[in-house]
Amino acid sequence: MPDIANRLTNVAISASVAMTQKARELSAEGVHVVTLSTGEPDFPTPDHAIAAAHAAALAGDTRYPPVDGTPALRAAIQRKFRRDNHLDYPLSQILTAGGAKQIIFNAMMATINAGDEVIIPSPSWISYADIVKFAGGVPVPVACLQENGFKPRPDDLQAAITPRTKWLLLNYPGNPTGAVATRAELLAIAELMLHHPDIWIMTDDIYEHLIYDDATFYTLAEVEPRLLDRVLTVNGISKAWAMTGWRLGFCGGPEPLIKAMSNVNTQNSGGISTLTQAAAVAVLDGPQELLKERAAIYRQRRDYVLERLTSVDGLLCHRPQGAFYLFVNIAAFTGKTTAGGRKIGNDTDFVMALLEEQQVVTVQGAAYGMSPFFRLSYATSLDILQEGCNRIAAFCQGMRD
Ligand code: PLP
Q1: Are residues 63 and 40 located together in one domain of the fold?
Q2: Which atom of ligand 1 is found nearest the CA of 171?
Q3: Residue 203 contacts by C-beta under 8 Å, 6 or more apart in sequence?
Q4: Which of 32, 157, 168, 194 has the fewest beta carbons closer than 10 A?
Q5: Ligand 1 atom closest to the CA of 244, numbered from 1
Q6: CATH assignment of the domain containing 17
């Protein structure tokens, strides 16, 4: 049989996709599964986005698009960056692609030479390390401990920097912990990075609008303009606007980087669906109140899950200030045995046993680079969260030494 490229040897199927697949299989067998693993909002696409896509289709806007994005969309993105982030990118410094994921992919493909290192504060979104490996680079995780709010300390970042370091990747509010960096924390990182002029910095701001309590969202390029020539500011419509299926991500960044990424874009994509682009203009330029209304609903769900799980003996929760995930420490259960007789050696055992004995789907912390934890997504209804919490509590209470 012809073989598969070596570059795929180290690239894994994402654990959250694998868990979701397992849950689908169980559901198909008629089992009542509670899925708390998916990283996507349960809200519908806003009506005005659908109307705009429909109108574009009827108007014949169905031909090949400009690969980097239509002028209308890039102008809407420019306005968004000005309005929300006080960033004034010229149109030549704005690019779109099929999701933030493809933006990140293009950035890595455009810059990484074999063996280049990419610093990834961890726990982190599963795909960063795989994309880096795919591009021929070496992911360098920097452990961000629970006691530090799952955020990197500048000294830890400094210790990870070598002459091969090409990128620092930042993601706040973060997946899987919901950590939000304060302005002061970003300034401290900026201060460090000013001493390392040969390193690109990416801020993945995809959860920008999902922010709670008194937390305020800042992005690095806005707090330290001296880094503007090295920062790639990444965002998209998937999480904020519940438009995961439309596949649109965008970024602003320094012109040489954007040009190189655009080159990659031209080879791996013919541009994004024209209908998606029309829908994106509608949400980026349209009324913004919906974002706050939905954030309030997520906050209510977070509070519910937090209260329920904090009251379960042995589970150690932190209070996420953004995104829609809870990253729960299960150290107290390692070495124990479940009601069904399964030995819990690590967090993968924990989530597998939780799935098999209580049919609740979560994802093990190991998948995000930190154990022993599990990630739960609360981007689902309160009814489902209630059922999920009941089952998780029963599972934990059933453990014995
Ligand atoms: N960045 C982070 C941190 C994510 O968690 C996700 C999705 O889970 C993405 C990017 C992907 O976003 P998009 O749907 O725009 O590709």
Answers
A1: no
A2: 3
A3: 170, 171, 172, 219, 220, 221, 231, 232, 233, 234
A4: 32
A5: 14
A6: 3.90.1150.10
Atom of ligand 1 nearest to the CA of 16: 8
Are 211 and 173 spatial neighbours (Cβ–Cβ below 8 Å)?
Answer: yes
Buried b (16+ CB within 10 A) or exposed e, 54-63: eebeeeebee
Q: Which two tokens stand for residue 152?
A: 């990197």
CA of 100 to the centre of ligand 1 (A): 6
Report the candidate in 315, 324, 296, 166 with the shortest Cα–Cα distance to residue 238: 324
40 shares a domain with 92: no
Above 90 in pLDDT, residue 371?
A: yes
Residue 175, ligand 1, Cβ within 6 A? yes
Last residue of a domain, one of 285, 318, 347: 285
- Give the Cα separation of 99 and 267 in Å (integer): 16
- Contact 200 CB / ligand 1 (< 6 Å): no
CA–centroid distance, 101 to ligand 1, in Å, is 6
39 CA: nearest ligand 1 atom: 8
Shared-domain flag, residues 95 and 149:
yes
**Ligand 1 pocket: which of 238, 324, 327 to mutate (most atoms <8 Å of CB)?**
238
Output DSSP code: residue 114: T
Indicate whether 241 and 386 sit together in one domain. Answer: no
Express each pLDDT in 322-341 by its tens digit.
Answer: 999 999 999 999 999 999 99
Does any ligand 1 atom lie closer than 6 A to the CB of residue 238?
A: yes
Q: What angle do CA 61, 65, 68 make, to 5 degrees?
A: 140
Number of structural domains (the chain) is 2
- Residues 6 or more apart whose CB falls under 8 angstroms from that of 167 comprise 107, 108, 111, 112, 116, 118, 119, 132, 199, 200, 201, 202
CA of 321 to the centre of ligand 1 (A): 18
Task: Give the number of the atom of ligand 1 that is nearest the alpha carbon of residue 323.
Answer: 5
* Domain edge (last residue) among 235, 262, 285: 285
pLDDT exceeds cutoff 80 at 179: yes
Mind listing the pLDDT tens digit for each residue in 240-296?
A: 999 999 999 999 999 999 999 999 999 999 899 999 999 999 999 999 999 999 999
249 lines ligand 1 (CB under 6 A): yes
Element (H, E) at 34: strand 34-35
